[in-house]
Design brief:
- α2 links the parallel β1 and β2.
- The longest helix is centred in the C-terminal third of the chain and has 22 residues.
- By secondary structure, the protein is an alpha/beta fold.
- The two termini are 35 Å apart.
- The strands form two sheets. A three-stranded parallel beta sheet has the order 1-2-5, with helices on one face.
Length: 185
């Protein structure tokens, strides 16, 4: 279930999934709708945009705050099912010329340097989670969707930043993971 949309009888659904295909990993609740009791599924999946709508605070505190709310990740894989959401609208590459919005601070900028700086700061907040056992982080979102301009690509699939910038971002995540893996062993 994503953010509780259509979520009902989560435990029964997870039980059914496990019976139907015991080899499949199950993400019982992507977002924030954990259910009381032991964690369901294989993932502790949180959406954190670090804004006033989030109970999780800055990215490095995400899973500490989740536990403080009474939902211990336990042995489940820690996942940021959604994070980021930096709004950047590119003139001439928008679905509509009005109504653009972004997650997080909800501010939409029109300067690629502002987006690049925002992503660099986001990366600095993400990396401590990598060393703390983060199993996955999904940036929201891959491409703009109608008036949501959080994408790394525009609505009509033009890159907002050079490929090299995005590759360096990914390489830093992988390098941090390798460093943390070596330090842990």
């Amino acid at each position: 279930f994503n953010e509780g949309w259509g979520q009902s009888d989560t435990k029964a659904t997870v039980d059914w999934m496990r019976q139907a295909d015991p080899t499949r990993l199950v993400d019982a609740a992507s977002g924030w709708n954990e259910v009381e009791g032991p964690g369901l599924g294989d993932f502790a999946d949180v959406h954190n945009y670090e804004d006033n709508s989030s109970a999780f605070g800055p990215l490095p505190e995400t899973f500490v705050r989740l536990a403080q709310l009474g939902f211990d990740p336990g042995a489940r894989v820690k996942v940021l099912g959604e994070y980021g959401g930096l709004g950047y609208a590119v003139n001439g590459h928008e679905w509509a010329t009005h109504g653009a919005w972004g997650y997080g601070e909800k501010t939409v900028n029109r300067d690629a340097e502002v987006l690049a700086t925002g992503l660099e700061k986001l990366l600095a907040r993400l990396l401590p989670l990598v060393c703390d056992g983060l199993g996955a982080a999904i940036y929201t979102q891959w491409n703009d969707v109608e008036t949501e301009v959080n994408g790394l690509l525009t609505y009509d699939r033009h890159l907002k930043l050079p490929t090299e910038f995005l590759q360096a971002f990914s390489a830093q995540v992988m390098a941090t993971w390798r460093e943390c893996s070596v330090a842990a062993s």
